[in-house]
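Model it.
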Amino acid sequence: MPTERTPNSLPLTSETLEALFSSIREVGFPLVGAVDLDLAETAFRPHADRYDEWLTRGYHGEMQYLVRGADRRKDPRLVLAGAESVVVVAIPYRRNPRAAENSEPRYARYLEGPDYHKHLPALLTPVIEKWAAPLGASWKICVDTSAVLERSWAAICGLGWIGKNTVLIHPKFGSYLFLGVILLDRKTGRAPAPLPSYCGNCTACLGACPTEAFVAPGSLDSRKCISYLTLEKRGEWPREIKEQSEKMGAWVAGCDICQEVCPFNAKPLRMAETWPTDDRDVALVTDWKALETEQETEYLARAKFSALSRIKYPEMRRNVARIRSRLKGPAE
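Modeled.
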């Protein structure tokens, strides 16, 4: 006899799902997609296998939280009990560089504006609450804080493809994207709808990495990555990194080099389509003297509402000191 289907396993109507999508777009997310977990098993398996291999090779460096959360990243039902589907949203952020000259302190572009870890959920929560209440649905919003493979689910939902530099790329919006994942205990009826990769024979990102962090197309050794070294690595850098620190340029927090050279990031976007950055001047200081003399209380105050808060004060001091020690000229 066929298994009796529970109400939670019944797909949402297309009208109900589109109402959710429309509401999400209205609060600022131009890209929205969804997929049912059971329909995505085959499409997701290669992503999970690559993640396992990446961890086995030690490319995660000292980010042990990636190991601890491995099982949950491979099974969203361990993140939300009863999860049946994944909804993925994306919003682009500014592409213009924060520093005009390479000798100025440089920051990854995503650090501009409010902390996306908090701001994205603040935008999405009222929308999901209002939509889910009449259905009695359970849900969970994950924005780079829960153990979820956001880029993999975004690619499976058709929001882009994962490029050779391991980031998600959309043909219009490029790769400067914030991603959010919403787990639902309802089926959407959506199957995987991945886009083909349009990277072609282009290897600009691979050749541009100054520290040669890409061991192969689509494979990043975080231990050599400037973003990892400035944002995630605690304590002193390894000797081999210290000896080659000139390759790291003036990046004090993160790095965008492999995205800067990507052809899909060359097209300008209307500001209305991008992330708000009204308070970017508060968190990102581009004066070397101010950075060198900054006290911990001052740093914590300016970084408090920014994703820059990911970097602890000792590590920011380390980053600044290493760069200043080799740049020509005194701080002004």
